[in-house]
Sequence to fold (69 residues):
Amino acid sequence: MAIVINAKLDEAVWNELRGLARATGRDVSVVLSEAVEEYLARRRARPDVRQHLEGSLSENEGLGKLLAR
Fold:
């Protein structure tokens, strides 16, 4: 069952979300649902694991952007 929501996003975030959906041939709602699921999974993780993950993601943000190209 799907729930309809109304949310406000920064325009740059919306454009990036829409671009990702187009690039992967998926609907924006599918990409958004996946992003929310990943966010919730990270929040459920043990605090020490989450802190390590967030630190690693932050340290390697530049590399991630290069790989995404």
